[in-house]
């Protein structure tokens, strides 16, 4: 990072999936600013933590505040999140049904076909 005159104030280095280091002085050792957490013991789909999943949870107090276009209100999206492909068929547009059936036939989830 530089100030308005272009003088280097601090250097940030690292990787998006490992850790970020801050270095104020080139002669000083870098100081860790952020480090990724180890994977969860019971990983969820998409490897999210339980806390991260709650950020997208639809609650009774939140639902009335959302616009009608919010994807959490879409029945097809809810079925997709629950890996229930046949449930989507009743609510998905006709052009999507072909691909959903194809996806369901290759699904690795044991309950993907039945809801």
Describe this structure in words.
By secondary structure, the protein is an alpha+beta fold. The chain folds into two domains: 8-37, no CATH class; 45-105, no CATH class. The chain is 26% helix and 12% strand. The protein is built from four helices and three strands. Strands 1-2-3 form a three-stranded antiparallel β-sheet, with no helix packed on it. A hairpin with a 7-residue loop joins strand 2 (19-23) and strand 3. It is elongated, with a radius of gyration of 23 Å. The protein starts with 10 loop residues before the first strand and ends in a 10-residue tail after the last helix. The mean pLDDT is 77.
List the helices and strands and how they pair.
Layout: E1 11-14, E2 19-23, E3 31-35, H1 50-55, H2 75-81, H3 85-89, H4 94-105
Antiparallel strand pairs: 1-2, 2-3
Compute the separation of the termini in Å. Answer: 52 Å
* Structural class by sheet pairing and helices: alpha+beta
| Percent of residues in beta strands | 5-15%
- Strand line-up in the sheet with most strands: 1-2-3
Series of H and E elements: EEEHHHH
Radius of gyration: 23 Å
The helicity comes to 25-40%
Number of helical stretches of at least 4 residues: 4
Please give the domain count: 2
Count of distinct strands:
3
**Overall outline:** elongated
Question: What is the arithmetic mean of pLDDT?
Answer: 77
Could you list the spans in which at least 5 consecutive residues all have pLDDT below 50? none
Largest sheet: 3 strands, antiparallel
């Amino acid at each position: 990072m530089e100030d308005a005159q272009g003088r280097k104030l601090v250097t940030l280095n690292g990787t998006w999936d490992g850790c970020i280091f801050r270095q104020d002085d080139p002669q000083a050792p870098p100081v860790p600013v952020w480090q990724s957490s180890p994977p969860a013991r019971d990983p969820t789909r998409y490897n999210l933590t339980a806390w991260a999943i709650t950020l997208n949870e639809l609650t009774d107090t939140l639902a009335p505040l959302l616009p009608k276009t919010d994807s959490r209100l879409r029945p097809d999206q809810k079925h997709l999140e629950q890996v229930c492909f046949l449930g989507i068929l009743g609510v998905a547009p006709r052009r999507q049904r072909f691909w959903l059936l194809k996806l369901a036939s290759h699904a690795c989830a044991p309950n993907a076909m039945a809801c």
